[in-house]
Amino acid sequence: MLVVDGLTKRFAGLVAVDDVSLRVPQGAIAGLIGPNGAGKTTLFAMIAGFLPPTEGRVAYEGADITAEKPHVRARRGLARTFQIVKPFAGLSVHENIAVGAYLHTPHRREAMAKAAAVAERVGLARDLDRAASGLTVAGRKRLELARALATAPRLLLLDEVLAGLNPSEIRDILPLVRTIRDEDGVTILMIEHIMQAVMDLCEHVTVINQGAVIAAGTPREISADPVVVEAYLGHGAAERLRGEAGHA
Hints:
This protein is α/β, with parallel strands linked by helices.
């Protein structure tokens, strides 16, 4: 579904993303991990069209979309969430979600109906009339996810959707992410630092460090890769992950 070939992004003398290639097949939940500053969000921005690559190409469902604007990619079915959630503070939760639905309809009633259905899906039905600015961190994360889902995506890029959540909130979100793939048929590529979530959700993981791919494989393969252990996981975390995978 998604093919990234040799994407590179240079900012003056800084190479933020260095010749990154990856594949995300239709129906997959794939992970993108690496240290802070590794270039993950910059890579997402190029895939979604918010930044033009210095080199390389992005293909989606067989079409070269490298030069397309974000709204054109969104109409194709490619949506993303943002690591730092910034809802439209002057709007209600309902209206915030409807912003995404307007991508496919100019009619307020239709957009609001779609938004209400999505809110039910992500657990925000009781908060529809609340001001978006009054939501908790967990509520804002659900709102960000809802706005993306309201665009009716076929490929969803999740940028640290679990960041800032407590363990109980994480346990609530994980099944939702899986359901979006299993029941809605949405392919997912996710940036995530919570490795247990990556182990639980992802079939394939790409690891980048200093802008370049250093490993790719199943979560179990990644947790045993000495390069990944040294660059990102650390020996203690890697041992815990392997032990948990062995008991799964």
